Records
---
Amino acid sequence: MADLTCNLGKFTLKNPVMTASGTFGYGYEYSHFYDLARLGAVVVKGIRMTPSHGNPTPRVAEVTGGMLNAIGLQGPGLDGFLHGEHYLPFLRKSGAAVIVNIWGTTIAEYGEVAAGLEADKAGIVALEINISCPNVKAGGVAFGTDPELAQKVVATVRKATTLPVITKLSPNVSRIGDFARAVEAAGSDAVSLINTITGMSIDIETRRPRIANRTGGLSGPAVKPIAVRMVCEAAQAVKIPVIGMGGIMNAADAIEFLIAGASAVAVGTANFTDPYAPVKIIDGIDDWLDRHGCKTAAEIVGSLR
Amino acid sequence: MKNGEIIANTRIQGDYYRVVFHAPEIAASAQAGQFVHVRISDRLDRVLRRPFSIHRVEADGSLEVVYKTVGAGTRELAQLRPGTVCDLLGPQGRSFTTPGDDVVPVLVAGGYGAAATYMMTRQAVPKGVLLLGARSKADVILVDEYRAAGYDVRISTDDGSLGGKGRVTELIDGVLHDFAGRKLRFYGCGPFPMLMALAKELRRTGQGGELSIDHVMCCGVGACFACVVKVKADTPEGWRYARACSEGPVFDLEDVYVE
């Protein structure tokens, strides 16, 4: 048994495996499979001030080695999340470490959501700022592909909360290191990456896009080499911790991210393939560390030769 | 971890197949209208499970799925031989409700939707009617099973190659006539346009019922919000998106939002 404790600067998790926002609902949905407190953290689906419907259907399409999604951040809004039976109140009882992913259609809204969570923050260990969702028209990736706007969002959230702030970066940029440095300078305590990569798939019989939004975010094993490269670049660009994700399906994938420089990882699409994926990955990392004579998970972070 | 050994996997007709899993835990609790979410193989070039309506379960722990080969996943499933073990999640989703003793169930199925309504024939209520619509004779399946269960099977096809020519909803008037004075409840499963037409027809004729509706599904447990359908709600638009996998796939007709 290696020591899996994961130090993310401003906060510490029991292990380096969390769930990727948008792939794990609000935790409740997977609580029938295993104890959520086993996870490093539960990262919930994005929360904004008001409830939102999300995009028309079909919202997902399987592609070779992954999937496209354009869910469009359907959600209960801040009040629904704070008070709904199957949302934050449930997570508090579960004993899970909760990271709340937040978004808005304006910079001010990001601040309002952060302030609203600050006022009722029991059980929340950090906020993750979503400036990288490719599937909403206003907000989301519009803030994540312009470094100045990204900084404004981070600074606004920073002012509104005492919680640690993680900024989730978009891969749909040419120089990821610049964005990581920009949000670090604006006060972000960590960065997480990658969000999905914009893609498209067409039904050749109907000649229509396979998802109603036309384009969607590509995730799954197909994106992993891109994610590993970007995590490696981001880790070299900043001093704050990096949380790596993108196509992690098993413990070997997770270890690859740790070696590339991620202090923690998030499991996304793999939850759909196997609901037990995150806990299998925790156990698999532990096994790997034992077999390689490592006493801690932390010692392999950034150990790329 | 894997819990669904294939006992048999055979072609019914054309592109339609029947796979029987040995899955006693799921079989023991499965209700009409629920589904199993199947990881067909471990290969990582196909990451998503496939949801299938539970066609029938038996006391020996067998669980049957009837499917059509429509894409890469179902074509791969059709290749699997007895002895192969798949990873099944289930039973998932909300089931059809059990009608009262005095109610005649009217099942309305489009194509392989007939697989999803079959378990209704096991309810201890009056034997009912199956209205089965399909594109063509080649897509009409499971008729003998329903007849063996004591159901009155009435068929329509788009091209008239079997039964009446036309839409399955056109068979409803005949049922209302034949069962005048009896309490009826309708249970539908089929393609989305058929279900919307069915909803309109049932509302027009003042009948109650339940519809099994979904869209392309992903997690199968309510987490990803891919498979949502519109249900009536107290929102400015009058609807909200409900997750077919966890809040459905069976929705009461009263709740279904028809555009």
---
Amino acid sequence: MRSKRVRNITKLTLGYLGLIIIAIGCIYPALWVIMSSFRPGTALYSNSLIPSAFTLEHYRELFEKYPYGQWFLNTVKISVFTMIFTTIIVTLTGYVFSKFRFYGRRQLMLGLLVIGMFPGFMSMIAIYILLLQLKLLDTHLALIIVYSSGASMGFLYVKSFFDTIPNSLLEAAKIDGASHWIVFSRIMLPLSKPMLVFVALTSFSGGFVDFIFANMVLSDSSKLTLAVGLFKMVKIKFATEFTVFAAGCVLVAIPITALFIFLQRYLIVGLTAGAEKG
Amino acid sequence: MAQHRKLAMSLSVLCMGLGQMYNRQYFKGIVMLLFYLTGIYFIITVLPFGMWALTTLGEQSDHLEKVGRVYVNVRGDHSIFLLVQGIIILLASVVVVVLYTLNIRDAYVVGRLREKGVHANRIGQTLRRITTERFPQLVLSVPLLLVVFFTVMPILFMILLAFTNFSFPNFLPPAKLVDWTGFKSFQDMFNVKAWSSTFYGVTLWTLIWTVCATVTIFVSGFAVALLVQMQGIRFKAFWRTLFIIPYAIPQFISLLIMKNMFNGQFGPINQYLKYFGLSGLPWLTDPFWAKVTVIIVNMWIGFPITMLMIIGLLSTIPKDLYEASEIDGASGWQQFKAITFPSIMFAFGPLLVMSFAGNINNFNLIYLLTNGTPANANYKFAGDTDILITWLYNLTLTNGKYNFASVIGLFIFVLIASFAIWNLRRTKAFKEEDGM
């Protein structure tokens, strides 16, 4: 009995040790950037993790030398609209594929999934020309359209989620004379809140993260998104402005990281929706 | 009386909407007629231009023309614009033709109903029918149109590019014309030594990278999930939250941070190694170590998702399985082997395959972390850590070899699509469920 207890204690100690090591590995890079953003000077190199003096200079510079506030507003605007359109499109597509049977349904699903696997920016040149002809280059509308237009190809997780909601619920409502629209908005939507949060969160963060398309579409400095702005900052004056860049990163990362951490229980629901249910 | 369907159908073949009017669906008929007129106008005015654009890709490059006494530079045809316009016109024509066919079918069906003595639907009834029986088609129409013009059109464009000579410096519009060259790009890719050796080298590393990336993420995520959920560990939610951080920080930021941390000269990682008396490693500058770094960083970024998923799945394994096995005297390892691992693999299998497909195209990681470096002198426009997708990016955006890039794009697509279709056909989400 006693040897078992000793074994349990060593097991737990090792477990905690492992957790602590992993935790350090997870936090250290973030901590390093936060510390760098407060460090005086502009160099990448430092003697210690915690700077000998703290300064808010770099944060001030960010707003004075760059249109950082404007970038932030642009990004939020694009992300919010993308989130709204994407969530509507994905949810409806997933719902229809899950709960309706119609001619060509399977072929359509397979087709959408396969098209969705095409390397995204291979389409960049064609989309660039299309946007040019629609006179949408250098506008935020163009980015919102490009981000939302592919939304229906991500239906699979949403469909899997709706598959778990029993059909009998829908049939009961239909017998009571509810239209498709009422069934969807009054019964399905309230039940699918975790999935909606998951879809909304991932599509919202998409606008903060993408720089390939945004870099192609946007050129005017006051219209840039955060990702493009920061990326350009790094490309052009990386060596000399590392600490300002670090300050920029901290300000982008904080809201997104906070959202993910607050909403983590919805993430689990969304992420496991694609798994086989035994 | 018995000939309603034939007459209605012939009228609709003749002119869209006529059959509907014959069936006394005047409102529907007028809407269709208006659509038909715009459609015909569009086809007559634009389609010949579209076909000309697609077949010739333009006939006149930039040239000098004598106007009065001086020569002026006249802009020629821009082959690539013509190609895109041609595809758009062709797709729009397909939409018109599809609607036209549907119109004929509709006239026939309604005509047959009339023969049976049923009154044709009035406009209100028609609209109601669209929102009930045709609900799926109604809902899907807008997203599908968006996909056709923003995804299918670019894909067609890219596929067609592989059969042209569109490349820098000799065939770059607007100064020069682009021509159809058939399979020449494919032949060059596999027969010209410089291209083929790059292609095989990069493909090999892409496969190694994909396997390593998928396996390391899966194993590490699984291990951390088990550790967090281990019996006796307290503050599970706290640990889980800490471990989400690498996933929650926007990727382009964490990758740029990592790039600096692994910096051989100034980066903190080498600093610490030196502090402990070890010599630093050339993390990003040596071909071998750069590959190792890429895989390590990918693991750091990717393990939280797997961990979250497996934590979610672990809670779905019935507790009584463990209790029963404990009574039978099974050890922890035996429980893992016989219960935990098989259940997780069963549920996680399809997701694993999807993440495999995702890693083949993991552009951000390679591009932001190493951008393909260290450079490889034996490769054409690629470095040692370049995977197919980043090589493709270099070819298009920095070197203007669009035709070769398209060949690679097609190759990646075929690779992933065959893999994904094979996988999806086996998963439950895709098999035909019981009809409603």
